[in-house]
Write a structure and sequence with these properties.
rod-shaped; 4 strands; 1 helix; single chain; alpha+beta
Length: 139
C-alpha cells in the first residue's frame, strides 16, 4: 500500500512539473505575440501618417492647379492646420525652361515641388514629396 501511495505522489509531482513547464512555454509565446502585435500597430500608425501627408500633398496640388493657392516664386513654408496638424508644407516654384520648335522660349511654364514633413511617433523626421508642372500665363 505504501508503494502505491508513493508512486501516486511521484506521478502527481511529475504532472505538476509538466503543467508548470507548459504554462511557462505558453507565457513566453504570449509575450512574443504581444511584441509582434505592438510592432504591427506601430507600422500601421506610420502608414496612416504617410497617407495623411499624401492627402495633404494632393490637396495642395489641386489648390495650386486651380489657382486657389498662389504658386509664389521661390520657396514658401507653412504649418498646416486641422486634420493636417503637425505637417509642414514646403512649396517651391521654379521656371521651367523649355524651347519650342523654332528655338523660341515658351513662357508661363513652372515646376512646383511640394514637400510634406512631420515627426513620427518615435520622433523621427518623415517626409513625402510631389512634383508637377503648372502653366501660369500672367507671370
Amino acid at each position: 500500500m505504501n508503494r502505491a501511495f508513493s508512486s501516486r505522489k511521484k506521478s502527481r509531482g511529475f504532472l505538476l512539473l509538466e503543467t508548470m513547464l507548459g504554462v511557462i512555454i505558453f507565457a513566453v509565446g504570449v509575450l512574443g505575440m504581444t511584441r509582434a502585435v505592438q510592432n504591427c500597430l506601430a507600422a500601421e500608425r506610420l502608414k496612416q501618417a504617410a497617407q495623411v501627408a499624401r492627402l495633404a500633398l494632393e490637396n495642395r496640388m489641386a489648390e495650386v492647379e486651380s489657382g486657389a493657392v498662389a504658386a509664389k516664386e521661390g520657396t514658401v513654408s507653412e504649418e498646416l492646420k486641422d486634420q493636417f496638424k503637425g505637417i509642414t508644407m514646403i512649396q517651391t516654384r521654379r521656371k521651367f525652361a523649355l524651347k519650342g520648335g523654332k528655338k523660341q522660349e515658351l513662357t508661363g511654364l513652372y515646376t512646383v515641388e511640394l514637400e510634406a514633413t512631420w515627426r513620427s511617433q518615435f520622433g523621427d523626421k518623415q517626409s513625402r514629396q510631389l512634383s508637377f508642372y503648372v502653366y501660369l500665363p500672367n507671370q
